[in-house]
Please model this.
Amino acid sequence: MEPAIRAERVEPEAAPRRRRRALLALLVFAAAVRLANLGAMSRLPIAEIQLDWPDADMAFFYDWAGRILAGDVLGRDTPHPYKPWMAEVAPLETWERWWGGRQVFHSAPLFPYLLAGARRLVGDGFRAIALLQLAVGVAGVWLVYRLAETWLGARAALFAGAISAVYSPGLLYESLALRDPLGATASLALLLALSRCGPDARTARWVVAGLLLAVALLAREATTVFLPFLAVWLTWTFRARPRRLPLAALGFAGGALLGLAPLIARNVAVGAPPLALSSVGTLGFVYGHVADASPALFELTPMARDVLLRSDGSFRAAVPLVWSTYGGDWWLLVSKEAERLAGALASFEPWDNANWYYFRERSPMLRWALPFDVVAALGIVGVWLTRRSPAPLLLAFLAASLATLAATSLVGRYRLPLVSVLCVYAGATVARATHAASMRRWGDLAAVVLAVAILAAAAHVPLADLATNSRERPIEYALAARTYLLAGDHDRAEAELVAGVRAAQTPARPALVSDLDWKLAQALANDTCARGRGAVAAQELTALAAAYPQDGRLERLLGLVYRDCLARPDEANRHFEGAQRLGAP
Model:
């Protein structure tokens, strides 16, 4: 008994030191992982391409930060993207009306202002992005640890932080000028502050929580979806002491208004509605919910275009118009919404601005880090394992995150807030599994492992067609190849062109390759022929033509390669005849 008593006396003093050392080691590990990934990403063309890629959000945010640095701190000349597909729908003046006025911020503004600060601190280019996102990412790991420690204990917290540190899609988005990592980290800060509030908490804590709500809103306008869930949580928290609720709510609301005061003052100064935070709400709803919308990925479908034009950007007018696209078929509506909700937990990582599947093959850290299906499975099992001592606040946030994903176009980076809280529960799963192993409870360990494996496998069922047919896209290959060609690095350019052409050979795609796939094929033919390597082009284009036997352009391109590069007129004529049969020009 004596050793046990002695250990019991020492534990209160030793445990905090061990926890601090473990937390420090975790943060060093998280920073090292991010530095390694940033090192790999900095050597890829995307590091610089993102700064001026006109169709990407990264360039938009970078330009916005540049305008702030140039002196337009209030955003009087508010930047809004106006991309080619937008011009096909309506003129700029119409889009400005749909946005609620040109002076309304296009999206929640916190990220571009922080990016401007990072650029002021370390200069322009990839370094500023890396500095900001490194700080945001490590802070997010720390917040996951603290949340898990608050609700689940120190052991689960360490595992939760480690899982958060090696979430592969998160590492990708943290290496680009995208606001989503900041939105997730700000949400975690809000949840941690709320975790320390309760009926007996001083008003000052509620004020701080309100301030962090404002920060979360300024980082991610979708935080507004959490507000009804938050109201329910507040009512439940004060159910035994309802008289304390008004004072807490007053402090919380006061803190939120204080945090939003700069936004309100700016809006009044430039002539925008005082509480206007973003201009994309109605558009996102329309894109995601018309009957011909994809369950994931952003697509401007014919129905979405029609609803936008007929509603003139009004959400109230858009709702019945979206419903009209279903022709009164309630079952179709329910099935589409169920598919979207299931897609929020699917293994497929829907790309937007950056394709995780492409960059995973080019960064060792992304390749070996944890994908979404594993983290989601660990998190869902953790929710079940902790059901007897639930964390209502975290469960409310998970529900709000799923509602947010169901309400807008589903892309992978929008899942970061959801994943951040799932990491907290994933820590509970790993803690339970390691405890079972240490106690040699093999049945308990097998049950946990089997549950995780089943859920991870089930995550591959939703969006399976998209995962098969839309996993690859040509833009990353095309941009990288162009960059390498301009730099005179023909070997790497050829490798990207070959990889892009192979990626175009996806089953069940349309019979004809996309325009960008076609340009990749042409570039491969031109570059390899100019370097006396026409056989490479012939081999790759033959495989592509076999995948798209109705594309006469490919047959004609093969004919040119055999005639002009390989001096094989008979083979060239065979392909020219094939192109003529298919009606190619």
Q: What stands out?
A: The longest helix spans residues 2-42. The CA atoms of residues 207 and 585 lie 69 Å apart. The chain has two domains: 47-276+348-454, 475-581. DSSP finds 30 helices and no strands in the chain.
